[in-house]
Amino acid sequence: MLRKSVLLVVDDQGFLKAVTSLLTDYDVRTATSGAEALASMSTSKPDLVVLDVIGHASEELDMLWKLKGNPDTRAIPVVVLTAVEAVHDTGPTSSGTKGLPCERHLRKPLSPYVLCEAVEELLATKGRTRSAGQSG
Hints:
alpha/beta, Rossmann fold
């Protein structure tokens, strides 16, 4: 059975190390920028992306909109991490993600354990959705 892959787009090396050490059941890849993440996805798409958004006009937000605007990558679940109020306050949506095209929106600072729980939940949901949609 193939391990599910998680792409961490995080530039905080301490947080990256903590999260990576907890996601041992997954194939974890890393990128330190939105551009690097998009480039890596052109060769191998992850099962989930964790995106640390630094500012309200950041390269990472551009990457998020490109990812969700592309038919080949829009189904990849994304967890957005941010401490930036302007990103948090973009208005609620029906999914509760504050106007961002993502499946989960977590406010920093946060425990790496909280992030790992979100990753596990979204990947479990994605697996059930994929299995339900397949025909025998």
